[in-house]
Amino acid sequence: MRELMSGNEAIARGAWEAGAAIGVAYPGTPSTETMEAFARCDGVYAEWCTNEKVALEVALGASAAGARTLVTMKHVGVNVAADPLFTAAYTGVGGGLVLLAADDPGMYSSQNEQDSRYYGAAAHIPVLDPSDSQEALEMARDAYGLSERFDVPVIIRSTVRVSHTRTPVQPGDRAAAEPASYASDPAKWVMMPAYAKPRRKVQLERIDRLRRWVEECPYNRMEMRDTAVGVVCSGAVYQHVREALPEASVLKLGVTWPLPAGMLNRFADAVAELYVVEEGSRYLAEAVRAAGVQPAAFPSPLPEDGELSPGIVRRALGLPELPHRERPADIPARPPALCAGCPHRLVFRELARLKAIVTGDIGCYTLGALPPLSAMDTCVDMGASVSMAHGFELALAGTDHRPVVAVIGDSTFAHSGLSSLVSTVYNRGAGTVCILDNRTTAMTGRQGNPFNGETLQGRPSTELDLMGLLEALQVPHVREVDPNDAQAVRSALKQAVADEADELSVIVFRSPCVLLHRQRKPFYFVNGSCTGCGVCVSLGCPAIARDAETRIASIDSAQCIGCGQCAQYCNFSAIEQIPASSMPGGAK
Amino acid sequence: MSDTKTILLCGVGGQGTITAAHLLARAALAAGYEVKVSEIHGMAQRGGAVSTVVRFGDEVFSMVCDEGAADAVVSFDAMEALRNLAFLARDGFLLASSETILPTAVACGRAALPPDMEGRLAAEGALLIGSRALAEQAGNAKCENTVLLGALESRLGFGRELWEEVIAAHVPPKTVEANLAAFRAGLDFAAGR
Q1: Run of H or E including A262
Q2: Quick one: pLDDT at residue A588?
């Protein structure tokens, strides 16, 4: 019986069918559901780690001890995990080790576009590149045998259109995989120069074997149709190519490192014009050239950024596109926004009021950069808020500068903000760090993390004492503040940036994400005292609007959760809460 | 390949476009087709404009929808229907809720709603449906997605029994009745229009 599965679910299923016993990850779109799906499988252990480097090291340890192991992350997570990744390609594995790197061309939920296939090429780790869920399942399943046969981790590289597309899948049974017994082998696992040098030779010999294997492995295939046009492609792009050019011959690459040079040359000889189609990257085109094949130039170049589609492929080849209506020009943008009642909102409102230089970080709260809050100066990578704030303070020291404030979420702080903060304390840095502790990893779907003490499979955990930790670090000024109390937020920030400006302050703003418990208090409404001043709409709450002509505000009772943030800003007592007794169904 | 159908479901993050897409995909699978459903998760969901694509047919390759390629655009929001107008095929079916959630920029007075949205959608041949009201009448405002699927079924022809089995099997047990009523309300509304 076939089931609809996302690519992520299929990868988890494939790992489970291969007998994988341990799964580790740090959540990140578009990879997150993979480990969530794996965690629901029978007979497996799965956990969230504090970051991707930790996850890969846990995975490598489990593999060394003999277990088949799955580790998953988004493309930028591979950057964090790159240190162990490159050397894991020297040590090799014990039990099969498979790493999912989920790329996000088009940047639906990421800070950059990266092509993780370059990591395979750079680290000499084979890369499997599935094009739908069925293939994702089979590749994940077979990757374990491959990993053990070649004694190397295997990367499964997906993109958002593989990870988040549901296609029918034929699931299979779980194979019995007994963990290999562990015996110490320092020459394989202790990568000091004396042992690493011979392992480098092992790696080079393995690369030769892999190059021979890709010529005959079932994942690379020549689909010969009309030979006027031949296309080399992989992953989701294969599906766009088949749609756009149904008659063209295709060399579908299921392994995108290493490339099958012999097969590429045979394919090039068999077609009149050979094109390489790929999105947001020149990885394949460069690799095809390196194999001695010169791809044809497109009549109209492929875009170098963003996603592809069948229409874009046709345009590049000079083929007609579909006729369509014009997109109306007067439709206002609808960017995502912080939820109604979001505990981050007032922190950004007050930071804007302070005219602070705000170094931001990765999470829902990055939305504080958008109008009307408009309270963020930078956002680069996980943990960068804290370290970049220190850099700002260093460069601006001795000048009359705006206050520098870092803003970071609880999960991101655990991921890598903590090591940045240790560095700032060690170097006696100044500035203010706001930890927005909403008790969860909100953006990726409310996962557990060390500061909320929830684990992926509901096992007992230790909730890390954040205040105790900051005290132990000897941060000069530490305080905990309720972020829904506007006055408290304002005075805490003011004290940190004015009175304590020469020393480091950390403010923990603690209040749970509104999506965690979905409690609704009696909602608020706008009474007849509204003057249309607009202060409440400047909070950017999705529940608050104002009339275009009268400027009078209104609150959508269907969206209001009764947080009361807006009422604290109204100077005219025009925002009131309905009595609990008049709540439909009563207050919860 | 030309018999492959492309349905683009659009709306505002949190409205249930993904749930609707899953039901549509299961119905198409039950009707014997190959299916692909392409979703967007993560930051794009937080109240932003979202779209989900369902493609089905004897053979389905790409999972995305180009401009001019959608056999139907099903919009949970009138303004989002206009935003996605270019995706509709020339002879495609445009189905849109007559209501609009105000984007933040409009709510704060930094941008204006486009004028005469209903008139413009009607001029493009749209079937406008008071899906929220029909869902409330069916017993649950959250069943707006099954109202829209009922209206879409008027052009798909999978058959009511097939849909009812799919809905009963895949919505939360407590909401089966309201969802079935909502589906019928949508189907009755659209049939013959």
Answers
A1: helix A261-270
A2: 41
A334 vs B109: CB contact, 8 Å cut-off?
Answer: no
Query: Among all residues of chain A, which has the CA nearest to that of B84?
Result: A327
CB contact (8 A) between residue A311 and residue B124:
no
- Asked if residue B108 belongs to a domain, the reply is no
Which ranges in B31-116 belong to alpha helices (H)? 78-83, 104-107
From the list B37, B67, B113, the residue facing A166 with the nearest CB is B37
User: From the candidates B4, B5, B51, B62, which should be mutated to test the interface with A, based on the most A CB atoms within 10 A?
Assistant: B62
- Tell me if B65 is assigned to some domain: yes
**In chain A, which residue's Cα lies nearest the Cα of B46?**
A336
**CA proximity to A63, closest of A157, A177, A140:** A177
CATH number (domain holding residue B19): 3.40.920.10
Residues of A with Cβ-Cβ distance to B105 under 8 angstroms: 332-333, 371
pLDDT tens digits for A531-553? 999 999 999 999 999 988 899 99
Residue B107 forms part of a structural domain: no
- Burial level of A1, CB count in 10 A (0-12/13-18/19+)? exposed
Please give the backbone phi and psi of residue A140, each rounded to the nearest 5 degrees, phi first: -60, -45
Domain A345-517 has CATH 3.40.30.10: no
Q: Which residue from A167, A321, A551 is facing B35, i.e. has the nearest CB?
A: A167
Fold for the domain defined by A524-582 = Alpha-Beta Plaits (3.30.70)
Tell me the pLDDT tens digit for each residue of A202-257: 999 999 999 999 999 999 999 999 999 999 999 999 999 999 999 999 999 999 99
Q: Which residues in chain A have Cβ-Cβ distances shorter than 8 Å to B7?
A: none
Domain A3-175+192-216 carries which CATH code? Answer: 3.40.50.970
Residue of B3, B12, B64, B11 lying closest to B34 (CA atoms):
B3
B17-30 helix and B160-170 helix, angle to the nearest 10 degrees: 130
- ipTM for the predicted complex comes to 0.96
Q: Give the whole-angstrom CA distance, residue B52 versus residue A567.
A: 37
- Please report the number of interchain residue pairs, chain A to chain B, with beta-carbon separation below 8 angstroms: 198
**pLDDT tens by residue, A336-346:** 899 999 999 99
Domain with CATH 3.30.70.20 in chain A: 524-582
| Average pLDDT for chain B | 94
Task: Report the alpha-carbon angle A201-A206-A208, nearest 5.
Answer: 105
Rounded to two decimals, what is the model's pTM?
Answer: 0.96
Task: Flag whether B121 is in a domain.
Answer: yes
The domain total for chain B is: 1
**Touching B: A residues 11-50, CB under 8 Å:** 29-30, 32-33
What range does the domain containing B17 cover?
5-101+116-190
Mutate which of A325, A557, A561 to disrupt the B interface (most B C-beta within 10 Å)? A325
CATH number 3.40.50.2300 given to A221-316: no
Q: Where do you find CATH 3.40.50.970 in chain A? A: 3-175+192-216, 345-517
Restricting to A residues 202-261, those with a Cβ less than 8 Å away from any Cβ of B are: 236, 239-240, 242-244, 246
- Cβ atoms of A19 and A144 within 8 Å: the answer is yes
List of chain A residues whose C-beta atoms are within 8 Å of the C-beta of residue B40: 108-109, 160, 164
